[in-house]
Amino acid sequence: MGDRVLMVGAGLSGAVIGRRLAEAGHAVTVMDARPHVAGNCHTERDAETGVMMHVYGPHIFHTDDEGVWDYVNRFANFLPYKNRVKSTTQGQVFSLPINLHTINQFYGRTMRPDEARDFIATQADKSITDPQSFEEQALAFVGRDLYEAFFKGYTEKQWGCSPTELPASILKRLPVRFNYDDNYFFHRFQGMPEHGYTAMVERILDHPGITVHLDTRFEPAQAEEWDHVFWSGPLDGFYGFDLGRLGYRTLDFERFRAMGDWQGCAVMNYGDADVPQTRITEHKHFSPWEEHEGSVLYRETSRECGPDDIPYYPIRLVEEKALLNDYVARARAETKVTFVGRLGTYRYLDMDVTIREAMTAAETFLAARADARPMPAFTVDPA
Ligand SMILES: Cc1cc2nc3c(=O)[nH]c(=O)nc-3n(C[C@H](O)[C@H](O)[C@H](O)COP(=O)(O)OP(=O)(O)OC[C@H]3O[C@@H](n4cnc5c(N)ncnc54)[C@H](O)[C@@H]3O)c2cc1C
Q1: Residues in domain UDP-galactopyranose mutase C-terminal (predicted)?
Q2: pLDDT, tens digit, for every residue of 116-166?
Q3: Residues lining ligand 1, Cβ inside 6 A
């Protein structure tokens, strides 16, 4: 007889763990407070235009993890998709990430790769030898002109603070390519599920050992009713936020419709500080194999996350890390709860990493049960 196991959250974390445990003979229940599965990756068709919308913001699948790529292809047909982002800044449209085209256009030049590399080295601020902030790091890499055009305003809007207050570690490598490659991601495998992420997650959850309850909020006091609980909700939320709230940024999406092709690309960033949106996304371009007369767009702005907002990006500055350590210490004492996913471990996780970690959590659980060992509260270290 298998255990009665609960997944709190029907996002990728809950679905992938739930599927594996159901396949191993456990009785799995999946609960989600939302009326749909797939968590933040949820996609649905707009009733008016038929366009597949990425409801909580655009999601592009990219990975170097062949096991994860095989896994998602078991449940969805992936079609080729390359993310090519543009940026409107200082009255022009540029190609991102900053590449040879961006540099030549920005400086009105026709440099070849080696010339551009030497030129950018002359722009970099050499007086900064030990960068302490994001701003100093960017200045040390690319100099003031490119920093102000592509990093300063965008970062201020996205994080709600000056880049002088953000750690240098955010910008680890030189954020410039000295060729014309404008594919946003480097990963070997990239694509979009033909019928959206929600259809994919529905298929992951389609197993006789899994029962799904939507529109159902789980209260931590109910945890005793289950042999084990996998919690993919907010770590601090499990404890009623009683030590304080971990800081997040939330996003507002102002949805609007248009006819035809409104902006000519999927993602247009806005680098200028005096333009309120960080970007506008046109969702029909995320499914380039489909044709629609109408179009749906999201004008995206970022702000501090309040108690009733959806938490999107964990802030993880010094203050939050201290609070995180307090919650983690408390969670480690749990014997029947495992904290998983982007909210349960308070980290930004791409979908492929989420899936890999969920696979590991499931295998850890199965091994623990097989050897009659306790299941740990975390299978990755959130700190
Ligand atoms: C704006 C944005 C864009 C992104 N773009 C990309 C991208 O392009 N590519 C990429 O690879 N990744 C992207 N990601 C990351 C991706 O969204 C995550 O990897 C993924 O959503 C994590 O899945 P999860 O199951 O851990 O969490 P979630 O998707 O957040 O699922 C958690 C679920 O738990 C439910 N829940 C919480 N508390 C309770 C409760 N008490 N009772 C019941 N249900 C509860 C929630 O309703 C939610 O559905 C992006 C993330 C953001 C924020």
Answers
A1: 149-348
A2: 999 999 999 999 999 999 999 999 999 999 999 999 999 999 999 999 999
A3: 8-14, 31-34, 39-41, 57-61, 217-218, 232-233, 251, 312, 341-343, 349-352, 354
Q: What is the pLDDT of residues 262-282, one digit of tens each?
A: 999 999 999 999 999 999 999
pTM of the model: 0.97
Domains and CATH numbers, the chain: 4-81+189-243+315-370 (3.40.50.720), 101-170 (no CATH)
Q: Does 348 qualify as catalytic in the annotation?
A: yes
Residue with tokens 């500055």: 317
Question: Strand pairing of 313-314 and 279-282?
Answer: unpaired
Cβ(18)–Cβ(28) under 8 Å? yes
Side-chain half-sphere exposure of 283, counting CA atoms within 13 A: 28
Place of tokens 């740990």: 376
Residue type, 206: D
| Structure tokens given for 260 | 């035809």
- CA 39 to centroid of ligand 1, rounded, Å: 5
End-to-end Cα distance, the chain: 36
**177 is a catalytic site residue:** yes
